[in-house]
Amino acid sequence: MYILLPVIAFAFLFLLLRRGDASLRESFLSASVIWALILTAITEGLSVFSLLTLGWVASAWAAAVILLAVFLFFTRGGAFGFSIPSVPKPAWIFYYTAFILILIGLTALMAPPNEWDSMAYHMSRVMHWIQNQSVANYPTNILRQLTHAPWSEFVFLHLQMLSGGDRFANLVQWSCMIGSLLGVSLIAKLFGADERGQAFASLTAATIPMGILQASTTQNDYAVAFWLVAFLYYLLLIMRGDERFFIIFMSASSLGLAIFTKGTAYIYAFPFLSWFFLWGMINLRRNFLKHIFIFAAVILFINIGHYKRNYDISGSPILPAVEARHNYAEGNYKVTNDIFTLRALASNLLRGLSLHIGTPVRRFNLAVEKGVGRMHELMGTDVNDPRTTYPNNEFHIPRLSTFEADAGNPLHIMLIFIVIFYAVRRGLPGRGNVKGYFIVLIISFMFFTFLIKWQPWLSRLHLPLFVLWSPLIAVVLADFHGKKTAAFVTAALALSALLWVFFNSSRPLIFSVDKDEADRNGKTVLSSRNIWNAERSDQFFLFNIPEHRALYLAVTDILKTRGCSDVGLALTGNNLEYPFWVLLQKENNSKVRIKHVDIVNVSSAIPEKHPFDDFIPCAVISTVHEGKEKLTAGGIEYIRNKSIHSGNLFLDLFVRK
Predict the structure, then answer these.
(1) pLDDT of res. 633
(2) E strands in 288-376
(3) What's the pLDDT at 323?
(4) Helices 410-426 and 483-502, interaxial angle, to 10°?
(5) Residue 168 and residue 174: Cα distance in Å, rounded?
(6) Which end of the chain has fewer CB atoms surrounding its CB within 10 Å, N or C?
(7) How many Å apart are CA 290 and CA 521, to the nearest integer?
(8) How much is the pLDDT for 398?
């Protein structure tokens, strides 16, 4: 029942903001921003006093519900003036989009958070926060748990505490997808699109393959996309002449929340902020200082807690001066380019765009790959230049993928190029700041490409840009001569989306790929296992890393048999921690406590707080002590009890001597 409290709070906010000419879409955006600010304030406020417990969190949401109910009663007097809106035209787009959202929502609800980063740090940091009753820094072998922006995980934290599990965690990104679809339709409306064009914008965003796959995960690229959409919607309203404090505050808050969600928001938002700055200097002059002050104050207020925690551990509030280490060997895992030249930009553009054109035809992919390599030869640069390529990776054109880490958006990248060609040849249709938005959106992608090294999984970081392109695609699509062309494009988008909806490789609705059989025979073999018939805890492994399942189950079963509930972890920076929490807590009557040990990074200097200042694990799970018979942690000696290997993963279990 506790889980209903934040839902009721959102509903009351929605009703409060549903006034005047505000549409349902605008009310949803505004309610989302204020709800997110309330959640952030509750989390940061309770954390200061180490009061992040079920009782305090539930009480805080109950207080918010009561205050909103009182405010709603006195401002509305019980009359909400709410009516069910008519279905926008064309109706088939609305119903089809709703159909896609329902299927993705079911996927998100039935599947656990089994994406790699989710199991390494998104959900793991949530478990540490619950255990520590605070979001303060703690010693960990996985530094991303401390340094990465935490807003999405703040929501997971509340859902986990109020529901007692991770059942609703994937719904956060799904909700952000809904918000993004509403937001891009509003932006299309500002650009002069009619009801049909606005529906096109939502459908275009709803059918982005990477978006479909991510919307049922606990990644955060759709969350940052939503906040950027909200930020730009309100920013465009300001540039249209709506300078109410509420609109300025909403724009600043949306940007602050985007930054608080993921660092890519700095890069994507910077060109738009520069555009706004130039526009304000010309059109607002002295009044513009007020806007700048509000933006700076709101963004700082939202992010001050995270900035302080980052500064404490790295000496830098925004970009942690901590070298990410995926193993105990020294290595440079910096994500930003080491050189900034036109050749480097051209190389990253070619390789980055190529990630979205993979097909099921291997020969085609190889031909494109060779072509990109040849263009690099003509430029006199290495296609795998380590200065512009993330370490230990080589450029290849990926196959058509249904995996959330590397799926491309082939139809959408084609539509974007059509929009660019259309704009150059005929000019952009629409009104308002559509041309400025178009130019700055291109600059935003160029800026990202100029800064960030090429990576095989870069396509997932592109998701916000594809979402932001949706209004422009819709405006151009609506301007095509003849309805047949627009109908063909929308039908192609709608039908192609079903591949990623039904055959998500990590969370399959119908069939999955039997990876064990594929590894043995080198052929793709379909399995009837899916999210409906596979046990929830098994789904962490079955669909992507089945070879890990036996290792994790063997180690956790031994610990349960021994009655060991205080467990130490000696991991690398990219190991999967979260399954240990789930498996150790499953059917375990004793309270499980998990802490990192044998830490060699800067977080080792963080002092343990009560009640963990005297934490002595009864066993240590290690992935970094292969071949060793003993290890020492916290002055205690442990001897190896079990060593299990599978593929490139090994787990060693050490117990107290």
Answers:
(1) 86
(2) none
(3) 40
(4) 150
(5) 10
(6) N
(7) 66
(8) 85
| The pLDDT value given to residue 331 | 39
Alpha carbon distance 382, 333 (integer Å): 19
Q: Strands 619-622 and 566-570: what pairing? A: parallel
For 28, the 3-state DSSP assignment is: helix
Q: Which of 266, 438, 459 is nearest to 351 (CA)?
A: 459
Roughly what angle, to the nearest 10 degrees, separates helices 546-562 and 578-585? 50
Predicted local confidence at residue 243, as pLDDT: 86
Count of beta carbons in the 10 Å neighbourhood of residue 549: 18
SS3 132: helix
The answer to whether the beta carbons of residues 174 and 105 sit under 8 Å apart is yes
Q: DSSP secondary structure string, 524-542?
A: --EES--TTTS-GGGGGTT
User: What's the one-letter identity of residue 537?
Assistant: S
The enclosing H or E element of 164 equals: none
* Nearest partner of 221 among 152, 303, 142, 119, judged by Cα: 152
Position 480 scores a pLDDT of 73
- Residue 89: how many CB atoms within 10 A of its CB? 13
Residues present in the chain in total: 657
Residue closest to 646 by CA, chosen among 559, 557, 549: 549
One-letter amino acid identity for 512? S
Which of these, 355, 379, 377, 374, lies nearest to 365 by C-alpha position?
355
For residue 27, give every residue at least 6 positions away whose Cβ sits within 8 Å of its Cβ, in sequence order, or none: 14, 17, 18
Structure confidence at residue 479 (pLDDT): 77
Inter-residue contact 477 to 198 (CB < 8 Å): no
The SS3 call for residue 19 is coil
pLDDT tens profile 514-536: 665 555 555 666 778 899 999 99
Positions in the chain short of pLDDT 50? 321-332
For residue 596, give every residue at least 6 positions away whose Cβ sits within 8 Å of its Cβ, in sequence order, or none.
138, 139, 140, 141, 142, 568, 569, 570, 571
Q: How far apart are CA 68 and CA 619, in angstroms?
A: 48
